[in-house]
Design brief:
This protein is mainly alpha-helical. It has 13 helices and 2 strands; from the N terminus they run αααααααααββαααα. A two-stranded antiparallel ribbon has the order 1-2. The model has no long low-confidence stretch (mean pLDDT about 90).
């Protein structure tokens, strides 16, 4: 029953993001996002382990999307939107602190898109910088609150604040490769090379057809280049239409890499777990961006302004 509930919540969260993509960018990119999520093998495997509760991984992104939607509709950001960012990160951390840098970046991606869009449209972009900062502080506040709950639980379990603090600080510093001597000789470059070049896990699998990391990244970069050329041929400014998408795509790539850099010891050992991070959110964002680029390039070639 718990597995079924978590699976339903995961796909419900995915559908909410698809709706946001559909209204904000287009329904073809939203369908691409959904396809990348449905045919991604790693989340399917992960949901068989109730420890992960994968639907909570999307909570910070959903909070960021809601903040952007309300701000666009009202012209200002209510305080309860920031509280939801705080609560989303708190709930996420109560289900596990691992991969925390990924969640923090996910809640900022929608705001960065709005900032880039306003910048390209020559609208006031500075307010979005303030919103990004406020949302980031609220997200960190949610993490701090979850750490406080952990500390209080430790006090109740161990019977002293010193033992609770030793347990908490030891776990945290070990995860971020500060006190874990097991792979102290491993460098960040070695970890990145392992996950970028050596591990060739399928990110999307539809029957016999599989898509891996490098071909997907190359396809998206080629899409940006070709779409920019198509827009240039038609005399349209490529930066205005492509810069927001490029920012989102770069951040979606940086999100999983951030944990590999922050926690090189944990990442180097747990090669059976870390590749799942590509699906939060590099894989669906790449599908969304590639579909958006195809639509944009086709419109530019077929309809000259």
């Amino acid at each position: 029953m718990l597995y079924t509930a978590n699976s339903i919540l995961f796909y419900a969260a995915t559908l909410c993001i698809c709706l946001a993509v559909g209204y904000g960018i287009g329904w073809v990119p939203a369908l691409a996002w959904l396809t990348a999520a449905v045919f991604a093998p790693w989340p399917q495997r992960g949901m068989k382990d109730l420890y992960w509760c994968l639907w909570t991984w999307w909570l910070p992104a959903l909070a960021g999307l809601l903040l952007c939607a309300v701000t666009r509709a009202r012209g200002k950001t209510p305080r309860w939107c920031y509280f939801l960012v705080f609560a989303a990160c708190l709930v996420r951390c109560m289900c596990g602190f691992e991969f925390i840098s990924v969640f923090l970046i996910l809640c900022e991606i929608p705001l960065v898109f709005c900032w880039a869009e306003a910048l390209c449209a020559r609208r006031p972009a500075r307010p979005w910088v303030g919103r990004m900062t406020a949302a980031g502080l609220c997200a960190l506040g949610g993490v701090a609150a979850a750490l406080g709950v952990w500390f209080l639980q430790g006090m109740a379990y161990y019977g002293s604040a010193e033992k609770s603090w030793a347990n908490l600080s030891g776990a945290v510093t070990s995860r971020v490769s500060l006190t874990d001597g097991a792979v102290s000789d491993v460098t960040v470059g070695q970890v990145l090379r392992r996950y970028l070049l050596e591990i060739n896990e399928p990110l999307v699998q539809i029957g016999p057809v599989t898509v891996t990391l490098l071909p997907l990244a190359v396809a998206v970069l080629a899409g940006f280049v070709l779409c920019a050329l198509a827009l240039r041929v038609r005399g349209r400014a490529a930066s205005r239409e492509l810069f927001p998408l490029f920012c989102v795509w770069v951040l979606s790539f940086a999100a999983p890499l951030s944990w590999m850099v922050l926690s090189k010891a944990h990442s180097y050992v747990h090669t059976h777990l870390v590749p799942m991070l590509w699906h939060f959110a590099f894989v669906p964002v790449s599908g969304m961006v590639l579909a958006a680029l195809i639509c944009c390039g086709a419109k530019a070639l077929l309809h000259k302004r």
